[in-house]
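Lecture 7 notes: from sequence to structure.
We start with the chain below.
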Amino acid sequence: QVQLVESGGGLVQTGGSLRLSCTASGRTFSWYSMGWFRQAPGQEREFVAAITWSKDSTYYADSLKGRFTISRDNAKNTVSLQMNSLNPEDPAVYYCAASVRYSSGIYITYASGMDYWGKGTLVTVSG
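Predicted structure tokens for the same chain:
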């Protein structure tokens, strides 16, 4: 089993930044591909970003490229999401996810490609 716990959500003004973190425990973290997804009220859960276990590949939703950056520290069992220039389209619950089935590729950009999920952290943007 893998446990994922997100942190770092909160209220930020339009144009501001937040850094989300996800700490994993359980199985060997460095074997997983990791991703971030988000879900706004009344919306489907959507892909935000993903990173392979070796950190050699990162993936982003087209609309978020240039504003969001995903990174991971395998020694600390953490994956982070730096979010800049936040705007009124970004508020959502942000979920950390791990895939043990897929090491790379398009499948880690799908929610169905993920095997474990955190409970989410809420991001709110004002102004």
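Points to note: The mean pLDDT is 93. Residues 35 and 90 are 17 Å apart (CA to CA).
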